[in-house]
Amino acid sequence: MFNGFVLVSLVLCLAASTMWVSSYRLPKTWLITSRPDRAMFASSKNGELRFWEQKILQPVPLGLVVKLQTPDVGVVTSADGSSAVTNYWMTGPLIAEQYGMSSDVRPGAFSINGQHSQFVLLRRQLLLPWWPLPFVSALPIVFAIAMWAVRRRRTKVGHCAACYYNLTGNVSGVCPECGKPIASKA
Ligand SMILES: [Zn+2]
């Protein structure tokens, strides 16, 4: 009854439930990858799981590299890495709060050596609600319990657990219909 599949789904269900609840109490944001001009983030916040990618579109002044380190703060350096952390900010609307895949562009700006520069940030995201995940991951457990209950009921009323053949008066210990050994009623 407790095979590996059910155990895995139990672990997933517990993990998803914990993440769902803690997304309200302890919202988190993670930086997954950060390459020049592009970064991937994930967050668990207010019952929602979000993955998104931010990419700097042109124009970025020649010889500068913008590295995104948090969703709202980046580091601008020269291409050879010699300078410099500067101010960096975003303006414009937040990304659409809709479930599934979506994308938007936000204008942004930074200053380096007293010079202001503008750029456009492309964001693509996948937004999912946490609540279905514990339920979906629990389905194999519900299925296993239902199968166990059906089998138990069949054997209790004197039928084969596998094919429901009536075993009244059977002495061989094997179902004559499907050949399965008969479970003891103990
Ligand atoms: Zn049978």
Structural commentary:
- The structure is a single chain.
- The protein has a domain at 4-129.
- The model has no long low-confidence stretch (mean pLDDT 79).
- It has 186 residues and is of the alpha+beta class.
- A hairpin with a 2-residue loop joins strand 7 and strand 8.
- The strands form two sheets. It has a six-stranded antiparallel beta sheet with strand order 1-2-3-8-7-6. A two-stranded antiparallel sheet has the order 4-5.
- Helix 1 (4-25) runs antiparallel to helix 2.
- It is built from two helices and eight strands.
- It is rod-shaped.
- It has helices at 4-25, 132-156, and strands at residues 28-35, 38-45, 48-57, 64-68, 74-78, 88-90, 100-112, 115-129.
- The protein is 25% helix and 36% strand.
- The longest helix is centred in the last third of the chain and has 25 residues, at 132-156.
- The structure holds zinc ion (ZN).
Summarize the entry for a quick read.
With 186 residues, the chain is of the alpha+beta class. The protein is 25% helix and 36% strand. It has a six-stranded antiparallel β-sheet.
Number of H/I helices: 2
Q: What small-molecule ligands were found?
A: zinc ion
User: How would you sum up the global shape?
Assistant: rod-shaped
**Strand order of the main beta sheet, please?**
1-2-3-8-7-6
Mean pLDDT: 79
N- to C-terminal separation? 17 Å
For the biggest sheet, the summary is:
6 strands, antiparallel
The number of E-state strands comes to 8
Assign the structural class, choosing from mainly alpha, mainly beta, alpha/beta, alpha+beta, or little secondary structure: alpha+beta
Query: Proportion of β residues?
Result: 35-45%
Share of helical residues: 25-40%
Strand/helix succession: HEEEEEEEEH
Low-confidence stretches: none
The radius of gyration is 29 Å
